[in-house]
Amino acid sequence: MAKITINGKICECNEGEYILAIARRNGIFIPAICYLSGCSPTLACRLCMVEADDKRVYSCNAKAKDGMVVITDNEQIASERKAIMQTYCINHPLECGVCDQSGECELQNFVYHMGVDEQIYSIKDTHKPAQDWGLIHYDPALCIVCERCITVCKDKIGDNALKTVPRGGDALEKSLKDTMPKEAYAVWNKFQKNLIAPNSADGSLDCSDCGECTAVCPVGALVGSRFQYRSNAWELKKISASNPHSSDCELIYYDVKPTSIENRKHKIYRVSSDYDFGELNKAARFGYDFNKDESRKDRIVLERIVDGFKSGRIKNIKFNSFITNEEARILSILKDKFELNLINDEAKAYQNFLKEFSKFAGSSLYNGDFDSVKEADFIISAGSFLRHDAPNVGYKLNNALKINKASAIYFHPLKDAVVEGYSKNLLSCNHSPNLDIEILLFILQKFGKNLPKWLEDRLLSAFENAKKEVEVSKKVKQTSLVKKKIKDENGEEKEIEEEVEKEVIVKEKELIDAKFSTYAKALNLDEDALEKLLEKKEKFTLVIGEDFITSKNASTLAKLTGLVQRYTQFKVLIIPPRTNSLGVAMICELGEEQSGKTFGYNEKGDVVFSSLKADLDAPALNEQEGTFTNLDLRVVPTHPALDYHGFELNDIAKCLGLEFENTIDYTPNLGEGFKKIKFDDLENFYDNGGVNHRGYKLESKSFEACDDEFEIENLNPNLDEVIIYKANPIGQFSKFSNRASALMQTAKLYAGKEFLEANSLKDSDVVIIKKDELELALSVELDKDIQGAYLPFFDDKIDISGFFTSRYSSVTIQRSQA
Ligand code: SF4
Ligand code: SF4
Ligand code: FES
Question: Ranges for the 4Fe-4S ferredoxin-type domain (predicted)?
Answer without folding.
Answer: 134-167, 197-227
